[in-house]
UniProtKB/TrEMBL annotation:
Designated name of the protein: Allantoate permease
Organism: Kwoniella bestiolae CBS 10118
Location within or outside the cell: Membrane
Ranges of residues in domain Major facilitator superfamily (MFS) profile: 27-447
One Gene Ontology cellular component: membrane
Keyword Transport part of the UniProt annotation: yes
Length: 507
């Protein structure tokens, strides 16, 4: 390669880096706030539990002097009943409709449903409202996983998924501070002020998404120059696995259901989110058990959010920096959660420093979940299959949250909620073991495909990037002669990772 060619390659790479930075500046803040609002809308219930909603909506029962929170647990789980019903259809919906516009409409609807919480006056009505809220909010996670796969290449995705998912930590700090103020000034029913606020904020943000978020690298709108648009096309062609806008294909649905990896993803999602019951829905109640008031318990939720953000950023950084270590990073990210559960369970609760530190370590459970999402996104091809596979993880997410809602027993306060922490430890160990099993499956399949390539099967040769002939020829005809043409046009068809023998799984 001549020095002139080398200089041109370097220029194009630098131009692509600038485009990626622009994509980050445009999309990541929108995704961060949206995902944070989703977390806030459903986690408000945890704070409302110490600000009057239990009494107002008859969510507890007292028998022989012991207060049982089974109704509260059911109301918490009801959100995920709606979510689990809708998440697979939502994943398929986003394979056909414009991502940004459809997501914006869903966000506005869920904001309206959230505000309607204040009209609930009894337990049955509140449960019904929570089911509907979960149904409409189920759109966000499938949409954003599809957005990440569409705009960023596989090796770039873990950090970006980690960024928007860290909103759970950022907004747990934000919401705790806001709810403290609303709890002090919200009148005789302060929990209603919390729902008015978060619902109104969500509706307003839905319009921001509608007007400012582009739908696709092929339709980036007014934010990119003509040169940058060509780079977006080039990146899109180099990342065919991310194309989510295709017709729904039944055989891809069947393939996803028949693959053992899909079921492992689902079980891992469920295991990881068993932790959510202790950190989100019952967090304020558990901390109050250390001897703090309602106001203090809400304030002490803030450091847990900080731990969530830091651990997600830490593990996402290494997942993107080094190839083929995600299945090893995931078990490593489970260690702080296990240590935290052991500390809360076994350390003395007076003084309270020990159990508080343990509680904050448990809040790091977001990191293994982010690594799981990035693994599935990078290792699935085919628009319909990608949507279904993501749906499997989100079904697991819901199963974990539903089970978690019933794993904090008020009557176990005197024994430090022992069942809760045992469940967390067992589930983290399972998720770690499942990650190692996935690594074995990925390695075995990659070796099989390598052997096929060595044996003369050209279709099994791994690809290194490039573009479809059709797209490249079109660009060349428009004067963009710096775009290379490759012969393997088949890689740009909507095929699954199973069909595309040149596909290699990320470890």
């Amino acid at each position: 390669m001549s020095s002139a060619d080398s200089s041109e390659v370097a220029r194009l790479r630098e131009a692509e880096k600038r485009v990626v930075r622009k994509i980050d500046r445009l999309l990541l803040p929108i995704m961060l706030v949206t995902y944070g609002l989703q977390y806030y809308d459903k986690s408000v219930l945890g704070t409302a539990a110490v600000y009057g909603i239990l009494k107002d909506l008859d969510l507890t029962r007292t028998v022989n002097g012991v207060t049982y929170t089974t109704r509260y647990s059911t109301a918490t789980a009801a959100f995920y009943y709606g979510y689990i019903v809708a998440v697979l259809p939502m994943g398929l919906l986003f394979a056909r409709l414009p991502l940004a516009k459809t997501a914006a409409v869903c966000v506005v609807i869920w904001g309206l449903v959230c505000i309607l919480t204040v009209v609930c006056h009894n337990y049955p009505g509140f449960v019904a409202q929570r089911v509907i809220l979960g149904f409409v909010e189920s759109a966000v996670s499938p949409a954003f996983v599809a957005v990440c796969a569409l705009w960023w290449k596989p090796q770039e995705q873990a950090k970006r998924i980690g960024f928007f998912y860290s909103a759970t930590g950022v907004f747990s700090m934000f919401s705790a501070l806001i709810n403290i103020g609303l709890g002090k000034t919200g009148g005789s029913h302060p929990w209603k002020s919390m729902y008015y606020f978060c619902g109104s904020l969500t509706i307003a943000w839905g319009f921001v998404i509608y007007f400012f978020m582009p739908d696709s690298p092929l339709k980036p709108g007014r934010y990119f120059t003509e040169e940058e648009k060509q780079i977006l096309i080039k990146r899109f062609e180099e990342n065919p696995w991310g194309n989510s806008q295709q017709k729904i294909k039944l055989y891809q649905i069947l393939e996803a259901f028949l693959e053992i990896k899909s079921w492992i993803y689902m079980l891992m999602g469920a295991a990881i989110y068993i932790c959510n019951g202790s950190v989100t829905a019952f967090g304020a109640r558990i901390i109050s058990g250390f001897g703090y008031s309602s106001l203090q318990s809400t304030a002490l939720l803030v450091p847990g959010g900080f731990v969530t953000v830091v651990t997600i950023a830490f593990f996402s950084y290494f997942a993107d920096k080094y190839k083929n270590i995600r299945t090893l990073l995931l078990p490593a990210s489970c260690i702080p959660v296990v240590v935290g559960a052991l500390v809360v369970w076994l350390a003395p609760w007076h003084p309270t420093v020990g159990p508080l530190i343990g509680y904050y370590l448990v809040a790091s459970f977001g990191a293994p979940y982010v690594l799981l999402l990035s693994l599935a996104a990078a290792n699935t091809a085919g628009a319909t299959k990608k949507g279904v596979t993501s749906g499997f993880i989100f079904v697991g997410y819901n199963i974990g949250n539903i089970v978690a809602s019933y794993l904090v027993f008020a009557q176990e306060k005197r024994i430090k909620y022992r069942s809760t922490w045992i469940a967390v430890i067992v589930c983290m160990v399972f998720a770690s073991a499942a990650s190692i099993i996935l690594r074995y499956l990925y390695i075995a399949e990659n070796k099989r495909r390598d052997n096929l390539a060595i044996g003369g099967n050209k279709a099994a040769s791994p690809i290194e990037g490039g573009e479809s002939a059709e797209s490249a020829e079109k660009l060349a005809g428009e004067g963009h002669t710096d775009v290379p043409i490759i012969e393997n046009v088949g890689r740009y068809q909507d095929k699954t990772d199973k069909e595309l023998l040149e596909f290699r799984y990320t470890l």
